[in-house]
Amino acid sequence: MHPTFASIQIAAPELVLTIGSLLTLMLGVFRGDRSLVPLTWVCVLIFGIAGVAAATGDQAAAFGGLYVADGFSAYLKVMILAAAAVSAVLALPYLQHAATGRFEYPVLLMLATLGMCMMVSANDMLTLYIGLELLSLASYTLAAFHRNEARSSEAGLKYFILGALASGILLYGISLVYGFGGSTNFETLSATLRGPAGQSTGVVFGLVFILAGLMFKISAVPFHMWTPDVYEGAPTPVAAFFSAAPKAAAMGLLVRVCVEAFGGMTFDWRQIVSVVAIASMLLGAVGAIGQTNIKRLLAYSSIANVGFALIGLAAGTVEGISGVLFYMAVYLVMTLGAFVCVLQMRDADGKPVETLSSLNGLSRSRKGLAAALAVLMFSLAGIPPLLGFWPKFAVFTAAIDTQLYLLAVIGVVASVIGAYYYLRVVKAMYFDEPAPAFAASDSRVNAGLIGIAALFCSPLGMLAITPLVGAARVAARALF
Fold first, then answer.
1. Average of pLDDT values for 26-53?
2. Which residue range is the domain that position 270 belongs to?
3. Which of 98, 105, 192, 415 lies deepest, with the highest CB count within 10 Å?
4. DSSP E strands, 323-424
5. Which residues does residue 352 pair with via DSSP β-bridges, in sequence order?
6. How many whole angstroms separate alpha carbon 45 and alpha carbon 48?
7. With the C-alpha atoms ordered 111, 114, 120, 125, is the resulting torsion angle positive or negative?
8. Do you find a cis peptide bond into 222, omega within 30 degrees of 0?
């Protein structure tokens, strides 16, 4: 077989997403906005086909070493595609209520997902940048999807300006590494940087700039400033998408860059990752305490959770990386479940309500919703025996095994601080005087998603620990 055709076959998930996005775009152009519902389900079908292709495809390098398909990328792609499919489905009732049901929404989701799949399979700085920018350009448009609302336009503009700055920083770092390391290929860089080039000041500066650009995408401190504003201003389904799939993709890309490209400079990047992890955990925990908007609270929660996941990366071992992958899989379910609950927060006129005070006494009017949200909050807080406890335990254990005791201790302290604002939500739902009742749910699919997420995070979810941890360990070993 010709090498080009062999490469295309290896990159089957991206091929499926490319063809699918072009087809849905053409169908949407001809049929107009009335095609939103069928196109959304077509989009979900395409995500499913791409997921099967990722899970069962060949594992090899392609396109002259620019792209690699391995166990690590397959694990992340399945996770990303599942989160993107859920994000597409949960948006339908919201878009129809808001009268902004445009066919471009599933198309943009598909293009963003294509960029994410390229990111986690990147084996070269050039592929990394192309995938990252494809995700970013679609994300800027999604953030400003409600173009007639001032806060949505503001969210899109803020995200675009800060994202452009992060891209410039990333490119500058890539140019420094290329200039002093002599290559943009991860494998070549790894071999080169284990020698005298790894001690070069120019390469260290390049590493710092590359990590800064990637930290922006996972909203780690001090590159987190866009997160609360964008989550609050963007449409709620878009905020749910931002909190899940792009986070997992960017975290996977960061892990691959650190372990593969800069594997010979572990001591250098471990210091950066450790400081960022500590800052993210503490700021995420403290910053959420004074929030009155549920979406801003979840934004700070995502910052704190990124900090916990970075503990596993700082360890730099197979156990640490498998802990990161396990953490992101559980975090995706918890945060998507929480955002679907937020989508149920509508007043009697059907308008979205986002204040924490509107949850007061929810257990008396919507017992099922209150119970599900309580389970998700307890799980996000990491309270055993709920599923959210075990990923934290995994990354803390990896840190202790690597003698990063201070990092583990600060992580435990930050978890205790963060538990306060999660428990505050539960307290409001069960012990405060009732606020006006929410409108009844109008989507059985979203109600089902909430139930699935709550059951997954409940003690029943412990049945999924063994297969999830096993898959994460196999994926982590593919990097070493």
1. 88
2. 264-479
3. 105
4. none
5. 346
6. 5
7. negative
8. yes
